[in-house]
Amino acid sequence: SSLNRHHLLPTAMEKDGDDSMMMDDEIYIEAEHGTLSDAGEYSYVGESARGNEAYLGDGGATVIYSFENLQAATYDVMIRIHDDGVHEDGSRDATFEIGTFTLPYEHTSENTDGWKWVSIGTVTLSEGTVNVTVTTNETTSAAFVMDAFKLVPVKS
Q1: In angstroms, how far is the first alpha carbon of the chain from the final one?
Q2: What does the pLDDT read at residue 11?
Q3: Distance, CA of 19 to CA of 27 (rounded, Å)
Q4: C-alpha dist (Å) from residue 131 to 50, 51, 106, 126
């Protein structure tokens, strides 16, 4: 099912679209592999002129992901977002629920000139199925737009 599609890169290093390196043990999930719920009129998961993305334009619009975590660890959560710099700070805010953790994405308006990786915090996950829910906080003139997210093991 689409809920279980993900990219786990446990050993190889690989480049993604913005030439940043995929490191060992990262969990990398493309935004279009989520399931949209409470979508409203201005939200979708799929293709646009920017590529495949999760576009959440309605307050409360939610996209859900699920993956198998192969290793209990603490991870830095990185999201790959798009912003045109036109809308005020906070207009693209979203909430990430990852396992038992809740992390806010607090939007700072900027022209990302394409996609940009942003860190939103850390989570500690056990082995097993992990559910990730991304919800827009409110309806504004701007949408939360995400291409992918990744969980990067925090090195001790």
Answers
A1: 35
A2: 30
A3: 17
A4: 26, 24, 21, 12
CA count, 13 A, side-chain hemisphere, 72: 2
Query: In Å, how far from its chain's centre is CA 36?
Result: 13
Which run of H or E residues covers position 85? Answer: none
pLDDT digits (tens, 9 = 90+) for 105-147: 999 999 999 999 999 999 999 999 999 999 999 988 899 999 9
Q: What Å distances lie between residue 93 and 23, 96, 128, CA to CA? A: 28, 10, 29
Q: Using the structure block, give the residue that is written with the tokens 């860190």.
A: 119
Quote the pTM value.
0.83
Q: Look up residue 75 and give its two tokens.
A: 């991870």
CA–CA separation, 67 and 5 (whole Å): 7
Antiparallel, parallel or unpaired: β 62-69 and 94-98:
unpaired
